[in-house]
Amino acid sequence: MTTPTGPTLPERIGRYRVIARIGKGAMGSVYSALDEQLGRQVAVKLMLAEFEEDPELRERFFREARITGQLAHRNIVTVFDLGEEGGRPYIVMELLDGLPLNEYLRSDTPISLDAKLDLMIQICDGLQNAHQAGVVHRDLKPSNMLVVRDGTVKVLDFGVARLAASNLTAAGMLLGTPEYMSPEQARGQKMDGRADLFSAAGVFYFILAGRPPFGSRDLRKVLQAIIAEPPPPLTDDQAPEALRQVLAKALSKSPDDRYQQCVDMRVEIEHVRRTLTATNSRVIQAALDRYQQIVAVIEERRTVGRSLSIADIDASCDAARTAVSTRFRLFADPAAPPPSIDKAAASAALEGLQQRHNAEQAALAALHERVADSMRPAPPEPTRPRGSFWRGLLKTRD
Fold it and tell me: Catalytic site residue 342?
């Protein structure tokens, strides 16, 4: 390894010229680097110096590269190379432009439920591919999942994963992140892919609620909750009932009570998504229809107002159309595809459109009443009895 340019930044790792350090995990630092032979930017994970003399940790590090290298899937990080520099092993992976899932969910732009369901489905797809190859991740958590700019989720860091047939990890050794580990993992028992299902469901809970399902502070309490307690229930605003049932099954304490494969959970989540999409489409279409009805009422009000020679009717109607198109611009173009918004936003828009429709209908009704008044015949003048004037001047005889 070439002399570092700073306290911790090496100049080169193997044939890769280091650009910057972009992360640090439990077993190594991650650098962005340039593969000068291929002219490609990559990510290089270099084992921490304190682990280089530990043969088991070294073997686990190399195993990460070998295991991940077997997996070729759009939702799993791609491994390009494996090597050793100065007695410290490293792996070379694709350099991803994105954010860890936990940071992505904290972005200023609200994330729709449909987008959250898409993240869950992608994670299921990546894990299903790994499980089919005999790989159990064992450390699923939001920071081990990266969302790239196009919305693709990449499952990272198989550093504590193992082949199902591997006996390298001693029985009872606790590996993984406590907030998301399965009950059998918390007890130090034998694990299989169903442990990843539990952890994935914990991540899905985090996606919906913004917090881990079993807390994150006191390790003893977290482990006790994982083993024996249900997570706090999600609210209707956080997840529909059908989705809450999916997570409840995946978070079952017994592996036998969970989904047995990621594909089974994926099917259920996709079903929830299709149902919500169909319902959302109906609400969006109702909002689109109501918008056009408002426009029609405004134009009818214009026509009636002109018939009454109301001086400012055109300006009033133009202002009304501008106001409604500004407030509900997603529904203003009938030729555009239906807007992509979630059910809550569509329902709120429909409610606002209904209120505006009622107001325009009331204004139109008032104009029609004026038209009706103008067409009614004038009431006859009251007739005064003949001689009444003189009679009023005469005194009444006794």
Answer: no
**Is 396 part of any domain?**
no
- The packing angle between helices 193-209 and 262-307, to 10°, is 20
Domain shared by 60 and 198, yes or no = no
Active-site residue (options: 35, 118, 139, 157) = 139
Residue type, 28: G
Mean pLDDT by 10 residues, the chain (398 residues): 58 93 80 93 85 72 76 91 85 92 88 93 96 89 93 83 45 61 91 94 96 87 92 93 96 96 96 90 90 95 93 94 93 81 83 94 92 78 59 54
Note whether 155 and 70 are same-domain residues.
no
DSSP string, 69-132: HH---TTBPPEEEEEEETTEEEEEEE---EEEHHHHTTSSS---HHHHHHHHHHHHHHHHHHHH
Which distant-in-sequence residues (6+ apart) come within 8 Å of 67 by Cβ? Answer: 135, 158, 161, 162, 163
If one counts every other C-beta atom within 10 angstroms of the C-beta of residue 286, the result is 16
Same domain membership, residue 234 and residue 306: no
244 and 103 within one domain: yes
Pair 346, 216 in one domain: no
Comparing CA positions, the residue from 118, 174, 177, 115 lying closest to residue 142 is 177
Tell me whether residue 7 is in a domain: no
Does residue 303 share a domain with residue 350?
yes
285: which 2 tokens?
């279409």
